[in-house]
Predict the 3D structure of the following.
Amino acid sequence: MFGLPGILGTLADLSVVVIGFGLIIFVHELGHFLAAKWARIRVLAFAIGFGPAALSYRKGMGLRRGSSERDYIDMLNADAKDAATDEDRPAQAQAISPTEYRLNWLPLGGYVKMLGQDDMDPGAVSAASDSYQNTPVWKRMVVISAGVIMNLITAAVVFVTVFMIGLQVEPPVVGAVAPGSPAASAVALNAGELGVTVPGLQTGDVAVEINGTVPETYNDLIVTTAMVGPKQPVRLSVQRPGVEGVLRFEIVPQRSDFSGLLDLGVGPSISARLVDMDDGAQRKTWDKLTDRYGLTGVEPGMTLVEVNARPATNPLDLRSAAQASGGNEITALFRDEITGDETLVRITPRVQLNTDFVPLGDSKITIEHLLGLTPVMTVGMDQDGDPKQGLVRGDIFARVGAVEFPSIVEGIREIRAHAGRKITLVVLRGEGPAPERERVTLEVKVGSDGRVGFYPGDTSTTDVLLALPPESVTDRQDQARTPAGASVIDIPGQRLVAVNGRPTGTLVEVREALRAAVPPGGERASVTLSLESPTPQRTVVEIPWTLDAGAIARLHELSWISGVPLSLFEPERVLLRAAGPVDALGKGFRQTERVMISTYLTFARLAQGTVKVEHLKGPVGIAHLGTLIADRGFIWVVFFLGLISVNLAVINFLPLPIVDGGQFLMLCYEWVRGRPVPIPVQNAVTMGGLVLIGSMFLLVTFNDVKALLGV
């Protein structure tokens, strides 16, 4: 937000978020304070933060370091302290306010302390007429709920202000659609009526309704999808360019292997403008990325204007051109819209391989293979720096720990198993085929995060050196199958030197040889693989391989990809602005309502298992998220604080002990029964609430720190 480089910018953004969060707490506690004054309850302290007081102010005693509470109590005798009225106090005490305004050292919350009301000690009651207990129940209900009401009012005002100014958001437009995802295979309920024959959502589809509400941003699609119940469909209506009428879909989302939340498998609409990278470290990363993807000379912030000499509107045009290229070069023209400078680059498309998922710990990892023929792990190109601990780019792993010629999945799994210990690595180093390379043995230290210090690559483009195929893979619909290659590759480190006598030097050549030998659409086909052993004798054996209809179909559906990641381009953004004050008020109330419902649904989905505890954010996670949002500008910080204000209101009014919702329930009991909840019960409930909330705080903070450290 401030445009400062590196750590200075992060600290500046963090300071804005912390101050903003403090203001939200202040508003919440101000609601309790003003309501208590209105109810004529004696307020002993109005504090921001916890712990000892850094500064305090008390009318009649002035501003001072630390707390004035001890000096104030010394001015009162034991009887005057709980006097029935202020008039009964000594004259000196009457000139001094009973309320201390405090700024405490730990600014992670706040509280209003009233006479006879102590969340931590329900037995701390008072007989004074202006105590909390001696105030009518309905007034105490107002006092307890005032903080939540103030937060909701603040959020509504914030949202109205934001929408009057305008907020740059990602529109509810479908960008990339993941192959095999629920979105890719869904068929519109009215597809026949509108003459649509191609299944799935398409790039450019504009969402006009989702589960009965009108989405205003792409994030509305993500949140609504994540909040549906288990195995429940998302009812989505889209307007598709060139189609007269609205397409109506019912799509059952599936858990994303990346976020862990329910997901349709669509990305946001991407613009043709490359991301900006300002500071030196980012620029170094940029240069490595552009070299890797064939964009040498292209500057950050440039716009893609042509692909193969035809006008381009977004990076998906690169994908389409690559698919139709047959592996031949494609051209891309980038332009600096400010200076007019242009850069023309030639991109060699990458061969597309089968993409599936295999288990890795508690999650899944993407694996690229060719019908189960899986390349061996190598030391790949690393955008974050050179490989460490003696490794060199291009090294082929002949052994990782106890695993010979591992795939990326096997190699990572074995390295993680040695976290915090040493592991032996044997690599093949140099140029040429693997058997001719130098064999180097390294003893390296595995960090506590399960990493050695290299970016994994594979032998798919350098040598047809094969690891053992995975025993089972799953697609995006979580359907498991045994890859075809599992029936022919049983020795790790074999080289595939020919298919039906046609020499092969890379997995790309293997794919083309298989496609030439196996016609599409067949039920079964057989080929002969020539496999060279990893022994010094380099014995070659001929292995027959029979492919079924499914394997043949998966072989021929493979195409070419540009290799340029969509993450290099900025998301498409539009200005979301209200037409006037009334519209802004409506948008503000709708946003407040939407956030409240989503927050309540989050707890329901936690119980149902579609949302997990690790998806929740504590103070550390909120602060980190806030610093990321701060990079998008001050108005986004204001909007973010509005979201936090609503969430604080909702969480505070949950029917849990300690928080306002639990206190309100006890007041309801007192109103109905005519007497308060027994003190022993209050003590037990308070202790249970402390354990519950404390445990949740520690858990979410632990998960936040893990995510922040990338562990």
About this structure: The mean pLDDT is 82. The chain has four domains: 137-166+578-711, 174-269+572-576, 271-351+565-569, 377-548. DSSP finds 18 helices and 36 strands in the chain. The two ends are 28 Å apart (CA to CA).
